[in-house]
Design goal:
The protein is an alpha/beta fold. It is globular and about 40 Å long.
Length: about 280
């Protein structure tokens, strides 16, 4: 009788492990499906853009050739399970940035995921370094830059408006510093000084990554506006203030702190009005 009970417990334990594993897979699958659903509802087409270093996932809605292209760059997503455990798939738990892109009334809009997110095979397909220490590396910036070239040609647009969220804001700044076709730059909850953010949270610096604050002077003449949430504890507003001082903006005219908004909550409810904020 004791042997039977022991085997029964082992069986239930095995079933529990299988169920938990399946739930984890379903969770990642749900993230992909949620993004596909939003895209389909708002007329976006899913595509995969091959670059020298990565194949990046994009959702696009092109309606008027020759008009500017608004490019939304995704944040770091679900990069970490805890302070010490990397995620096996950095796809965002919630498609917030795609939601913002879907609300944009511009005729030509593209959403661009970061390496390892929303991939064709539902597997990251790249080394975890590229959503951890090297997430702002030269090769990542070059890849996103190449993808924007491809999207701009497809939309037949002469100019690009960059919108970056969180870590995607860092990428947007680094790209804006190396292009001559960027008309405007917007960042949302932007990690614009990676060294200061990591020091603020007591975590190690990013090895192999570029820091967007080092490009602040290169983009100082670009029309831009930066939004921070008053309740954002991930990227506090002082990070953006520091970046803007480096960019020569002493009076804060390019910066809006949005009351009641955290790093992830409140942006979609306010996005249409924030899009109307002048540069």
């Amino acid at each position: 009788m004791q042997i039977f009970i022991s085997c029964s417990k082992a069986g239930w334990l095995l079933l529990l492990i299988i169920a938990l594993f399946a739930a984890g897979c379903a969770s990642v699958s749900d993230r992909y499906e949620a993004a596909d659903r939003i895209a389909a509802e708002d007329g976006f087409t899913k595509t995969f853009v091959k670059t020298d270093n990565f194949t990046l996932t994009a959702y696009t809605r092109f309606a008027r050739p020759l008009d500017d292209l608004n490019v939304y760059i995704e944040g770091d997503g679900s990069a970490w399970l805890s302070r010490t455990r990397l995620s096996y798939d950095p796809t965002p738990r919630r498609p917030l940035v795609l939601e913002l892109a879907a609300m944009d009334p511009a005729p030509n809009v593209a959403y661009l995921a970061r390496p390892g997110q929303y991939t064709a095979a539902a597997e990251p397909g790249c080394h975890p370094d590229y959503w951890s220490d090297r997430r702002f590396s030269q090769e990542v910036v070059a890849s996103v830059n190449q993808a924007i070239d491809s999207l701009r040609r497809e939309a037949r647009s002469d100019k690009v408006n960059l919108i970056g969220y969180s870590g995607g804001a860092a990428i947007a700044v680094l790209i804006a510093a190396r292009r001559n076709d960027v008309a405007t730059l917007r960042t949302v909850a932007g990690n614009l000084d990676t060294e200061t953010v990591n020091r603020h949270h007591g975590v190690s610096p990013l090895r192999g990554s570029l820091n967007p604050i080092d490009a602040a002077e290169k983009v100082k003449n670009l029309p831009q506006h930066h939004f921070a949430g008053s309740k954002d504890t991930v990227v506090p507003p002082f990070i953006i203030e520091s970046f803007l001082k480096r960019a020569g903006d002493q009076d804060g005219r390019r910066f809006t702190v949005v009351n009641g908004v955290s790093h992830t909550r409140g942006w979609s409810e306010r996005w249409k009005s924030l899009l109307a904020v002048p540069f």
